[in-house]
Write a structure and sequence with these properties.
By secondary structure, this protein is α/β, with parallel strands linked by helices. It folds into 2 domains: 136 residues, Rossmann fold, CATH 3.40.50; 179 residues, Rossmann fold. It has 14 helices and 12 strands. The strands form 2 sheets. A 6-stranded parallel β-sheet has the order 3-2-1-4-5-6, sandwiched between helices. Strands 9-8-7-10-11-12 form a 6-stranded parallel β-sheet, with helices on both faces. Helix 8 packs across helix 9. It is globular and about 60 Å long.
Length: 333
């Protein structure tokens, strides 16, 4: 095969989990051009994957846009496409593009547009990364390395260093990042715990940086204000590439189960992750950074819990500041 396309998953953490797919394809077809078709929110993270030759943005929802994209793909003479998630519309698009080999899960009616159908199975029985790799394995592509790996871009490191220097932080400082966000509320640690943690970390002479999106800015500033210490907010000040640069300069990232956790782990950064309703066996870090996962048995979280109406959230509340500080001591020794 000369040209191979992978239809990416849609969320940051899942995109990181998919990176072994591209490495396996490069190992099996060393002369091939490997491309990723992805929604804009994950294009920047896939651009950091060393085994991807081209990232093609996918954001057309109109019929005219779909037809135009099919024409673009046709012009790239794609020999085979691997679809990492069930989607009738995207599988149809690959058929419309005339790609001769189409491999993916057959559920939800997608099978009619596939040439090679991957058997369905319980998604909560395997790590998400292994689910994506199963698409390749079903086609006979061997998988020998399951690690999720990314490489920070040089310009992102330069941006990060400039940002740090402007705040009086140098390479001699101990930098620790604390991510307070999460893509749904039940995965987030209580704010008061972050206040106590930031206070403890600053006392240990860490330069503590709290990243986040623009929507996290008020929360981050409130935590820093209530902590009453010299922590630094980066909320709303970084894009994904620069966040990768900052993470690469940190000794440790402390975070809930979130996209930044998997980004940091894939960059080789040590992480302490706080798991509540989700399970590390399914969405735990798979990078080469040292990792400590903290999860308390709340009874209801022995399997992944998606009860978004939960009024208790004790699975996260039971994780104490002292648990995190103890984990940090383990990483330092």
């Amino acid at each position: 095969m000369n040209n191979i396309l992978v239809v990416s998953v849609n969320w940051l953490g899942d995109a990181v989990f998919s990176t072994p797919v591209y490495r396996a394809l490069k190992a099996r077809y060393p002369g091939a051009r490997v491309m990723a078709l992805a929604v804009p929110r994950v294009c920047n993270v896939l651009a950091m994957c060393p085994d991807i030759d081209e990232v093609i943005p996918f954001h057309e929802k109109t019929l005219a846009g779909q037809i135009a994209l099919a024409g673009q793909l046709r012009s790239k003479h794609v020999d085979a496409v691997f679809l990492l998630r069930r989607s009738v519309s995207r599988t149809f698009l690959m058929w419309l593009a005339g790609i001769p080999v189409r491999v993916g899960f057959a559920g939800n009616g997608a099978g009619m547009f596939l040439t090679h159908r991957v058997a369905e199975f319980d998604l909560d029985s395997r790590h998400r990364s292994d689910v994506y790799l199963k698409v390749l394995e079903a086609f006979g592509v061997p998988v020998s390395d399951h690690a999720c790996l990314l490489s920070v871009l040089p310009e992102a490191l330069l941006q990060a260093d400039t940002w740090l220097a402007a705040r009086g932080i140098s390479s001699k400082d101990k930098i620790l990042m604390v991510n307070t966000g999460g893509n749904w509320d039940l995965k987030q640690w209580p704010e008061k715990n972050f206040v106590g943690l930031v206070q403890a970390l600053v006392r240990q002479e860490y330069k503590v940086i709290l990243p986040g999106a623009a929507s996290d800015k008020q929360k981050v500033e409130r935590i820093i204000r209530e902590a009453g210490v010299a922590a630094i907010s980066a909320a709303g000040e970084t894009d994904l590439k620069m966040l990768a640069g900052l993470l690469s300069r940190a000794q440790v990232l402390i975070t809930a189960d979130s996209g930044p956790l998997h980004l940091a782990s894939a960059l080789g950064v040590s992480t302490i992750s706080l798991f509540g309703p989700t399970r590390p066996e399914i969405t735990g870090p798979r990078g080469r950074g040292r990792s400590i996962v903290i999860q308390k048995d709340a009874g209801c979280n022995r399997a992944p819990c998606y009860n978004l109406q939960c009024q208790d959230n004790r699975c996260m509340k039971e994780i104490k500041v002292s648990d995190v500080c103890q984990a940090l001591q383990q990483l330092e020794h």
